[in-house]
Amino acid sequence: MKKIKSLFLAICAMYFALCASAQMSESSEKGSGNKIPAIVLQAFVKDYPAITKVKWQEEDGNYEAEFVLEKVETSVVYNASGNKLEVESEVSPDKIPTEAYDYIKKNFSGYKITETAQIVGMNNSITYELELKGPKGRFDLLFDSAGQLVVK
Fold it and tell me: Which residues, in sequence order, are bridge partners of residue 1?
C-alpha cells in the first residue's frame, strides 16, 4: 500500500511540474503577456505527458505550443476550450507530393524550399506546408494531400 501511495504522489508531482513548466515557458515567450488557460495546459499535458520544454503563443484566439517530439519539430494548436485543432510536424521533403514540387518549379523559379511540414487537422485531413525563400522574400504555401495548392 505504501508503494501505491508513493507512486500516486510521484505522478501528481510530475503532473504539476509539467503544468508549471508549460506556464513558465509561456511566460518567458518574447512579447507574450497573455496567460495560457488552464484547460489548454491540461489538454496539452494529457496529450503530451513527456514534453517539458514548450514555447507557447496566442494566435487568433487559439493557443499554439511548439516543442520537439521524438527529435521532430512539432506544434499543436488548441482553442480556448482545450480542443486540439491541428498538429504540425516537420517532415522530410520526400514525404511531400510530387505535384507540389511541380507547382513550385513552374510558378516560383528562383525560390528554394527551406522547410517542409505535414499538418493533420482535427478531422484527420492532411495538408503540407512548404516554406519558400527567394528573390521576393520568404513565405509559405499550403498543399492538400494530392499536391494541389490550397488557397486561403
Answer: none
